[in-house]
């Protein structure tokens, strides 16, 4: 049997990597061996798709081979979709305990977690993007704080925050699962 091709997931985020590995473990015939590199890739301003594509182009050029990157946004409807791809800085400044204060003056607490994977087959290839969204509400933090804003994202229809779910439960309905599922399908059909 031919050796599987390598696919590099360029991310500096160990929690993203763990979830992606957990989800892909359930696909034994995934046609790549996934490795990881934490490269410094620029994150431009723009839509989540612009950000994801720019990260992937830069990573593919640096590594000259097939890569995936991922960008995660948290969008509040009361703020017209902000902070969106800029959530990392908001979380960094406010901390998980104060993130919910962003919507303190609003009745509308609707939040959408958006995960955008981008895949580049080579340094010259145009990135292909796969987007997954999970709807919910921004709440005061509840649950085990394993990952960023997980304790503040109460997922619609569950009454639980991501941080109140075990990893199996989160990985069946998360924004990341939904995007990765499409990427996995695409790559499996290409192989
Ligand atoms: O509670 C969470 N549950 C999640 O499922 C999740 N996914 C991402 N994040 C956080 O949202 C920001 C995205 O920024 P981001 O996409 O630029 O990520 P990053 O800079 O950490 O890694 P990368 O860009 O090297 O891949 C960062 O603060 C991430 O920690 C999450 N928090
Ligand atoms: Mg980043």
The main pleated sheet reads as:
8 strands, mixed
Give the rounded overall mean pLDDT: 96
Shape: globular
Order of helices and strands: EHEHEEHEEEEHH
> What is the radius of gyration computed over CA atoms, rounded to a whole number of angstroms?
17 Å
Based on secondary structure, the structural category is alpha+beta
Distance, first to last CA? 14 Å
The bound ligands are:
the ligand O=c1[nH]c(=O)c2ncn([C@@H]3O[C@H](COP(=O)(O)OP(=O)(O)OP(=O)(O)O)[C@@H](O)[C@H]3O)c2[nH]1, magnesium ion
Number of helices: 5
Q: Provide the CATH top-level class.
A: Alpha Beta
| Helicity, as a percent range | 25-40%
Total separate domains? 1
% residues in beta strands: 25-35%
Which residues sit in consecutive blocks of at least 5 with pLDDT less than 50? none
The third-level CATH topology is: Maf protein
- Give the second-level CATH assignment, the architecture: Alpha-Beta Complex
Question: Helices and strands in order, then pairings?
Answer:
Layout: E1 5-10, H1 14-25, E2 32-37, H2 48-63, E3 67-76, E4 83-84, H3 87-94, E5 110-120, E6 128-138, E7 153-155, E8 160-161, H4 167-173, H5 175-190
Parallel strand pairs: 1-2, 1-3
Antiparallel strand pairs: 3-4, 3-5, 5-6, 6-7, 7-8
Helix pairs in contact: 1-5, 4-5
Q: What features would you describe in this structure?
A:
It is a single chain. With 191 residues, this protein is an alpha+beta fold. It has helices at 14-25, 48-63, 87-94, 167-173, 175-190, and strands spanning 5-10, 32-37, 67-76, 83-84, 110-120, 128-138, 153-155, 160-161. The chain has a single domain (5-190), classed as Maf protein, CATH 3.90.950. Helix content is 31%, strand content 27%. Strands 1, 2, 3, 4, 5, 6, 7 and 8 form an 8-stranded mixed beta sheet that branches. Helix 4 (167-173) packs across helix 5. Magnesium ion (MG) is lined by residues 43, 88. Magnesium ion (MG) binds at residues 43, 88.
């Amino acid at each position: 049997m031919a050796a599987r091709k390598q696919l590099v997931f360029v991310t500096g985020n160990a929690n993203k990597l763990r979830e992606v590995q957990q989800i892909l473990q359930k696909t034994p015939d995934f046609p790549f061996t996934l490795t990881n590199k934490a490269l410094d890739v620029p994150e431009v301003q723009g839509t989540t798709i612009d950000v994801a594509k720019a990260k992937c182009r830069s990573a593919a050029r640096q590594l000259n081979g097939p890569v995936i990157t991922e960008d995660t946004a948290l969008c509040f409807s009361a703020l017209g979709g902000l902070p969106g791809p800029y959530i990392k800085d908001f979380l960094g400044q406010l901390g998980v305990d104060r993130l919910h204060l962003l919507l303190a003056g609003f009745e509308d607490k609707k939040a959408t977690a958006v995960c955008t994977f981008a895949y580049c087959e080579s340094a010259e290839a145009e990135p292909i993007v796969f987007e997954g969204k999970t709807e919910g509400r921004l709440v005061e933090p509840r649950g085990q704080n394993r990952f960023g804003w997980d304790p503040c994202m109460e997922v619609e229809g569950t009454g639980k925050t991501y941080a109140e779910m075990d990893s199996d439960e989160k990985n069946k309905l998360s924004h990341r699962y939904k995007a990765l599922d499409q990427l996995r399908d695409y790559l499996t059909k290409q192989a």
